[in-house]
Design a protein that fits this description.
Layout lengths: L2 H29 L15 H34 L4 H14 L5 E8 L4 E8 L5 E3 L4 E3 L5 H5 L7 E9 L5 E14 L2 E9 L11 H63 L5 H33 L6 E4 H15 L6 E5 L5 E4 L1 H18 L5 E9 L2 E8 L6 H4 L21 H11 L3 E6 L5 E8 L5
Parallel strand pairs: 9-11
Antiparallel strand pairs: 1-2, 1-7, 2-3, 2-4, 5-6, 6-7, 8-10, 11-12, 12-14, 13-14
Helix pairs in contact: 1-2, 2-5, 3-5, 5-6, 6-10, 7-8, 8-10
Length: 463
Amino acid sequence: MHAADDASFQQQQERLAHEVAQIERIVAAAARGEQDDMDDRSGDLSLPGRLLYELRRREDAGFLFQERLKALNEITIALSRIDTFDSLCWHAVKYGIDQLGFDRLSLWFVNLEQRQMIGSYGVDEGGEVRDERGLRWSYAETYIEDFIDGKTEASLANDDAPIYNNRSEIIGHGWHISAPMLHSERFVGVLTADNYLRKQPMRSYEPELLRLYGITVGHLTELARIREQAFAMRLEQERTRVLRQFIRDVGHDFRTPLSVINTNSFILTRLEDLVRRQSFADEIRGQVRYISRMLDSALEFIALDSDMVLNPTATDLRALLAELIAIHQTQGAAKNLIWTTDYDPSLTVTVDTHFMRRALVCLLENAVQYTPVGGCIRVGSARYSGEIGIRIEDNGIGMAADALDRIFEPMYRVNQARTERRSGLGLSIARRIVEAHGGRIVVRSAPGKGSRFEVILPAQDRG
């Protein structure tokens, strides 16, 4: 062996020994959880340089993964406080891109009967959350079937996949991850992510992070769906109960006037005395008017659920109450009622005058109905902190405590013998209107001591 070859061999041996020493130092520092004090060697293609770069890359990824897991815990708490299914889905996508660092996300829910994936919310090509609830695609012969069959619960990652828009058009290529959304080990949907926007390479922890997020979102969305289904069922049951009660009550209330109309109509065909014929005809007309009022109240009550659009304006409370009192003084003149007032003439309320007038009419009619001949009705107002009260008080028959819990129910009457010529919907109508204004009705009553109904409304904003 020549001297030059010996020198070259010796240099290689020394360089190798130096690299081995460097590797040993790097590995020892990594084992201790310490940073090696060597300069950044990301551009160093030597074995120690590549090893150091890889160790640091993995350390950075591990640290970032831990930070993302902390964020996932905070997101889980935030999502668990959201009640509605759609809002939960929207926020799941929003939190995923804002706090977990994903580029684009989409939520899809499985429909086993139709063998389709149903869209929810996703991120558009501009980075904004968009509504994808009208989208759907067949999962037949796709990876979704493996998720459904439980063959895998791991995320499926592809480093080079076509990226689609919401019209199923390819808009680019990049990485794509699909993670199953699970609820008690049952597949309920899939959470997908891609890198269309920033074109960043897939981080090593992202498939696992998306898998964990899919489990979280799947569990919470399914609970929200169950809650909404249970609420819808209770609501439907309540509607059925109210409808059944309404039909029963209306049938009972209509039976008497219809019977009177039927009887008097028959008698009219047999009478020749014009005076008596007129009397029976008047009775028929009275019964028809009563039925008409009942139907009007029923239709009004139903319309308040869907057709009530408020147009609030500043309203002089004194003028409104004076107008309504004058009307009811005339209507209740036969009972010789005594009316007194005690209201602040400077008070103004911001209300829809049409609807609020209707609500107060219902309360005044109720007072007139249950106040005996010669009784007293007192109408007043009060200013509270941030609120205004409108009081209608009578010294009528009053109500027991158990009746107070039910007087706002549709068709409920304190006199269950149903001898009152009223629809039983007035107080229900009044409450719906007042609550639509952000207010409430407070009732105080006792048998034989009269009743006081107070409408509490938000005070006019002076700012």
